[in-house]
Amino acid sequence: MGIRGVFRSFSYALEGLRYALLTQRNLRIHTVMAAAALVAAYAGKFSRGEVVLLLVTITLVVGAELLNTAIEVTVDLISPEYNHLARVAKNVAAAAVLVTACNAVLVGILLFGPPLLKIVQALSP
Asked: What topology is assigned to 25-123 in CATH?
């Protein structure tokens, strides 16, 4: 694959990301939360390791959401009428997003909890 092929591949990937952002409310919510977490990490002067953990967590959630979208669209294409197995496929894909989102909440508590607790304690009389 030449340089044109590489650029074409990136173009297709960005087209998919654009589609997902425009059509998937949860992906937009995850994106806003990710941006807020990164800003808070910067403001909180997180260590390099903490930022890496945050970036990996964000990537897992967004990646799972993108895969979920791809699976949902594919299932709808293949099986436009109701099918129990189509429903199972969609539910399992959604569960993957749920698992990564729960992990993100736990990582967020571990990373942001201690600094937030210090702020709350400092503000308490």
From this structure: Helix Hairpins (1.10.287)
